[in-house]
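How a chain folds remains the central question behind the approach discussed here. In the encoding step, the backbone of a single protein was reduced to a row of integers, each denoting a local shape. We regard such an encoding as a compact summary of how the chain folds. The sequence in question and its structure tokens are set out directly beneath this paragraph:

___
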Amino acid sequence: MAIENRFVQNDNKNAVCYYRYSSSAQRDVSIEQQKEEAIKFCKAHGYHIIKEYSDRAVSGTREDRAGFQQMLYEIDRLKPGYLVVWKGDRLSRDRYVAAMAKKKLMEAGVLIEYVAESMPDNPEDRVLIEGIEEVIAHHFILQHAKNVKRGMRYNAENALYNGRKIWGYTGKVNQRYEIDDINGPLVQRAFLDYANGKPMVQIANELNQAGHRTVRGGLFSEKSLWHTFHNRSYIGEYKWGDIIIPDGFPRLVSDEVFLKVQKMLEKNKHAGRGAARKLHPEDGIEFWLTGHLYCGKCGSEMSGTSGTSSTGKVFYYYSCIGHKKKICKKKSIRKERIEAIITDVFNDFLNDMSLKVMAAEYVYEYYQREHAGDACYAKSIQNNIKDIDSKLANIMKAIEAGIFNETTQARMNELQEQRALLADELVVEKNRQQYALKPEHVIKYLESYVGDMNDSSLRARVLSLLVDKIYLYDDKVVVNCFFSEDAREIRFHEFDEHMANIEKITTMLDSVDENSGTIPKSLEKLMQGLEDGNNWTETDGRNEPNFFG
């Protein structure tokens, strides 16, 4: 039996209406216009509207539209005689989805009426015309998608705005991205804060408290900032699919700051690896070099491991991850040995005034470069305050005109609170600029680090402040510092000799007669040897005396 002969329409004049438009950026007939015309149509034909469904800014190719699915779900219960839509493509632009929906409606006894399209009364002709309309709609959406992709690819090849909103930038159709005067400096400050060790959650809280919002209008969170700190647009890279343009964006962040932020992100990603840092927390065994110690042969990270001897004694080691994967032949090293060497190096760092001066100069130069645009940040705060003042002025005009309610009061209170926070932030920023960093401040700060390197909190601060990476070889260890391009190289046999001499000196001093106050000649000779000896080198071949002395 033919399909049209099986259709039995519900015997009533009840109608449901369905409205849809694809996007606020397209020129589809609005929901309100469709509704207005549908009401006129129903009134002219004597139909009684019992329910209306709509989907705003949803593509007709999608089957998971909320209003569309609700209408199909409820149609069996409501049993109307008619479904009124603006055009066939409002129901769906995908002919397969349209066929499914029409089958469902047919089985429910519902006849589709089109407000803006004329359909013949003859069932055979109606099926033909509807089929043609469905094919045309399907062809349109395929062609439209192709045209859109072509247009977006052209935009990408020319680094033009493609509809993607990015915090810190503004975009206009057929134009390149530009730096947002208000949010651009906020992006720069967020990168600097995180690079300098401020927790991500604290940065997010400060932005939210100051009244700033994401490009979607939501609150900042660790997740949103995580995406921000990984976004290479801020160093000028424009990326769209397989298209990459190095200078497609105006730069907001320097390569140096961006790289430091990436290192911080990588470090913090692994910071919670309890198994790697503390194999036996109940025994207080902490592998504090985890995340800083790397294999000199393959470059892999070295992590903590342990082994038990035949007597049951537990030994702790740092082992190359590449060795565990059988791609590297680097041997493990005893935990106590490598940590003793690095602890001694730290003590030397913090007691060497020349190193403190070098670090101070490096930090000061970096500070000068990165804070050259601080005036822009203060200007950004001032622009925010000016914008809030304008909004408050508009609210006051509305109040003077007699428009005052709870919503008006709440909005005014919110803006006044944001203004107070921004005013405080502006005062802090101006004070910070007034008391700018100087090299002597850095030296004084470094002196606060001098202490017992067996103190875990102090040791962690020194690692974070001074050390980039430590590379371990079979015969030496190389320490790379943030403030120096020269890597510090410590050979194991030299360190062993140094420690042996220190032990001899300690033993001899203990044996000195306190009353006589005389120092044995053997001790004088040993101490003179330490002063004259070269106990460490730099990787570029230059020697400096007394690294351990």
